[in-house]
């Protein structure tokens, strides 16, 4: 086995040990296919008030502009599918936000992986990314064979589904590269048909400015009244397009204790949510991604749903 293969095997084995679902590697370079797609999406204003999507256009498409001497993108998936869900007929939050904010959980694992690479292989430079920098996570994960981008624009994996986080290490080390997998959506349109706000405007294209997740998390102003009655009780994020996807029949519960929800969260009723105090909000969501919307933001979302 040559050095590249040995290093690749070492990295993938350690990623598994750290609890990642899977690890795929692709060669760093310009994303030719994604460039016109991203440009069109921005030109059609599908990002609405998410102005940050316009920033660093060139860096989004070429990681060698983010990390000097970048050779490889190590893409990683981390499962967050919960053991149990909120009670029925309550206001809902996305499953990914049940437990500790994933940014902290994954960043620690990525740092450990980078340290391991430096200890075992030598002087390797790189950076860890968890959806907080201009990196097209899904495109790189698809390029490295971890899944295909579904009609709902999420990454999908056979036997696993889509309830996982995507992160990457961009490093200046040449490795063996994986090849993309094929698309297995076929003629299915369940995600498109189920979206209550018609945010999936055509297969593989999501208009961010119509997405329930955008309204309940990103939008800082009032939610447009035209959408009243269309949110299906989602108060933070939305999982509809993933919940209806046939591939998510294969989702298995995660084994990351930090992703377990606060004990009170799953049993809260609509009345509990409507009466929530800032003190309870801080207690239940102390380490959660829900803090992004802040107490007032969550109250606004609940008022909109009532």
TrEMBL record:
Cob(II)alamin binds at residues 60, 131, 155, 166, 213, 238-239. Transmembrane segments: none annotated. TRNA binds at residue 220. GO terms for biological process: tRNA queuosine(34) biosynthetic process. The active site is at 131 (proton donor). It is found in: Cytoplasm. [4Fe-4S] cluster 1 binds at residues 185, 188, 191, 245. It comes from the Bacteria. It catalyses: epoxyqueuosine(34) in tRNA + AH2 = queuosine(34) in tRNA + A + H2O. [4Fe-4S] cluster 2 binds at residues 195, 211, 238, 241. Pathway: tRNA modification; tRNA-queuosine biosynthesis. Catalyzes the conversion of epoxyqueuosine (oQ) to queuosine (Q), which is a hypermodified base found in the wobble positions of tRNA(Asp), tRNA(Asn), tRNA(His) and tRNA(Tyr). Monomer. This is Epoxyqueuosine reductase. The lineage of its organism: Bacteria, Pseudomonadati, Bacteroidota, Flavobacteriia, Flavobacteriales. The gene is queG.
């Amino acid at each position: 086995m040559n050095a590249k293969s040995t290093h690749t095997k070492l990295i993938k084995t350690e990623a598994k040990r750290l609890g990642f679902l899977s690890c795929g590697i692709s060669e760093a370079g310009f994303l030719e296919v994604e460039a016109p797609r991203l440009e069109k999406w921005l030109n059609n204003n599908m990002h609405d008030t998410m102005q940050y999507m316009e920033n660093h256009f060139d860096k989004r498409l070429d990681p060698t502009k983010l990390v000097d001497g970048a050779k490889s993108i190590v893409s990683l998936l981390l499962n967050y599918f919960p053991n149990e869900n909120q009670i029925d007929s309550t206001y809902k939050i996305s499953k990914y936000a049940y437990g500790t904010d994933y940014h902290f959980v994954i960043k620690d694992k990525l740092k450990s992986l980078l340290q391991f690479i430096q200890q075992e292989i030598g002087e390797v430079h790189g950076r860890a990314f968890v959806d907080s920098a201009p990196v097209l996570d899904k495109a790189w994960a698809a390029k490295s064979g971890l899944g295909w981008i579904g009609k709902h624009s999420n990454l999908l994996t056979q036997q696993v589904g889509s309830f996982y986080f995507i992160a990457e290490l961009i490093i200046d080390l040449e490795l063996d590269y994986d090849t993309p997998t094929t698309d297995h959506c076929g003629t299915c349109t369940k995600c498109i048909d189920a979206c209550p706000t018609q945010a999936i405007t055509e297969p593989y294209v999501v208009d961010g400015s119509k997405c329930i997740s955008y309204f309940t998390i990103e939008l800082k102003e009032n939610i447009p009244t035209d959408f009243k009655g269309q949110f299906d009780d989602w108060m933070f994020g939305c999982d509809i397009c993933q919940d209806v996807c046939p591939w998510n029949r294969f989702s298995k519960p995660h084994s990351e204790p930090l992703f377990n929800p606060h004990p009170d969260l799953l049993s809260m009723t609509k009345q509990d949510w409507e009466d929530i105090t800032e003190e309870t909000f801080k207690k239940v969501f102390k380490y959660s991604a829900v803090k992004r919307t802040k107490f007032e933001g969550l109250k606004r979302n609940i008022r909109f749903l009532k």
